[in-house]
Design a protein that fits this description.
- This protein has 417 residues and is mostly helical.
- It folds into two domains: 42-245, no CATH class; 257-412, no CATH class.
- It is 85% helix and 0% strand.
- The chain has helices at residues 3-8, 11-41, 43-65, 68-78, 83-114, 116-119, 122-128, 130-137, 140-145, 150-170, 179-203, 212-246, 249-266, 270-283, 288-325, 333-358, 363-388, 390-414.
- The radius of gyration is 21 Å and the shape is globular.
- The two termini are 20 Å apart.
- InterPro entries: Poly_Biosynth_Transport, Polysacc_synth.
Length: 417
């Protein structure tokens, strides 16, 4: 079955795509409204402080997610008509997330105590940690799995819009920079609490203590994708983190401002890949010929979309940077242009790693490829950033993504996966 015909006959995919596009659109587009405002009001220096804190906390978000955004989605997708199994999955995932949150609090406390760079702005880091709480409470994976994303679309719209408006209302001077993480986290926390209420009310999922064996099953099931996602975060975020130790807050802020634009562009692909994932999981349960045809069509379509978007952004990068940050920042537009190479390979890696290897429950091979590329990228960041600063990040990121692509292709072809 061709991909176009498959998607055409799947109205569920289109509904979820619209819902996910709305959610992801708000996640990336609304911050774009506040970006120019924040850079101008709190200044590039304090924006750098906020950005570094966000990167550090992003690692804790990965820890508490533990790969469940994919593994739990997959399990719920395959068991959505079995309420008893759904209760087990939801309670196991939320219990594990609770333990991981407690662990994360302890680790952050140690970092703030022993690392001067973090201790200097301890309050900012603790307030930014509120985003971890919001992510833990918001079970997007459940609604993705049952393919009912419309249930939480409205919640996301309201919470994100209110958070954005609050920034314009309450942040008026450089001294107000610490308010930003509070406003960002509050929306997701309130939305998460309400979404858990919806799971209870509309799906009848009740609280039930799970056995140690059941919890360990989900810990084991999510371990490969957790390591992969952690390495992915290291691949994309270690550069800014390391830069924070070698450059001033102003330089960190300059790079972070451009990177925010890049991530917003990457976000254009998120609703497509997330809505495709449950379908890919089902598709790779079918016969081998159907799998190959689906994968070929998927690679062709996603490669074309990635090529068009990356080329267009690279061409208009100076205009885009000036529009958001002013004429003084145009000199850094080359950073966005080079990042478009990174974008293309990132999209291809999602298709090979998530839509194919993960959907076929071959997570360990995806993890192995990430171990190779993530290790090399982090090592290159450590070597290049002290001497080249921002340019060092760009070299390391692009080489890392290319290595990841090559590693997965070699494994898929070599082992005939």
């Amino acid at each position: 079955m061709s991909l176009s015909k498959f998607l055409k006959n799947k109205s569920v995919f289109l509904k979820n795509l619209i819902s996910l596009a709305t959610v992801q659109g708000l996640n990336y587009l609304l911050p774009l409204l506040t970006l120019p405002y924040l850079v101008r009001v709190v200044g590039v220096d304090k924006f750098g402080v906020l950005s570094l804190a966000t990167v550090v906390i992003a690692f804790f978000i990965v820890v508490t997610d533990y790969g469940f955004n994919y593994t739990a989605t997959r399990e719920i997708s395959l068991n959505k008509s079995n309420k008893k199994e759904l209760v087990k999955i939801v309670n196991s995932v939320m219990t594990i997330k609770l333990f991981l949150t407690i662990l994360s609090v302890g680790i952050l406390a140690l970092l703030i105590h022993f690392v001067h760079k973090f201790n200097e702005y301890a309050l900012v880091y603790w307030l930014t940690f509120g985003s971890v709480i919001g992510q833990v409470l918001f079970p997007v994976w459940f609604f993705q799995g049952v393919e009912k994303m419309q249930f939480i679309t409205v919640i996301n719209v309201i919470s994100k819009v209110l958070s954005t408006l609050s920034i314009f209302i309450f942040v008026k001077s450089p001294e107000d920079y610490f308010i930003v993480p509070v406003l960002v986290a509050l929306g997701s926390i309130v939305g998460g609490i309400y979404s858990l209420y919806l799971i209870r009310k509309d799906f009848g999922i009740y609280f039930e203590l799970q056995t140690r064996q059941e919890l360990l099953k989900h810990v084991k099931g999510g371990s490969n994708l957790f390591l992969t996602t952690m390495l992915s975060t290291a691949l994309t975020s270690s550069g800014l983190l390391i830069l924070g130790f070698y450059a001033s807050n102003t330089v960190v802020g300059l790079y972070a401002a451009i990177e925010k634009l890049f991530k917003a562009i990457v976000g254009l692909f998120a609703p497509i890949t997330q809505a495709l994932y449950p379908i890919s999981c089902k598709q790779f349960q079918e016969d081998n010929d159907s799998q190959k045809q689906y994968l070929k069509k998927l690679i062709s379509v996603m490669a074309l979309i990635a090529l068009v978007i990356s080329s267009s952004v690279a061409l208009f990068a100076p205009f885009i940077v000036e529009m958001f940050y002013g004429e003084k920042m145009v000199i850094y537009s080359y950073v966005l242009q080079v990042m478009m190479i990174w974008l293309f390979f990132s999209v291809m890696n999602n298709v090979l790693g998530i839509q194919y290897l993960s959907a076929k429950k071959l997570d360990k091979f995806y993890m192995l490829a990430f171990i190779v590329s993530g290790s090399i990228t982090t090592l290159m960041n450590l070597i290049l950033i002290p001497e080249m600063l921002i340019d060092g990040i760009l070299y390391a990121m692009i080489i890392g993504e290319i290595i990841l692509t090559v590693a997965m292709i070699v494994m898929i072809k070599g082992k005939k996966l």
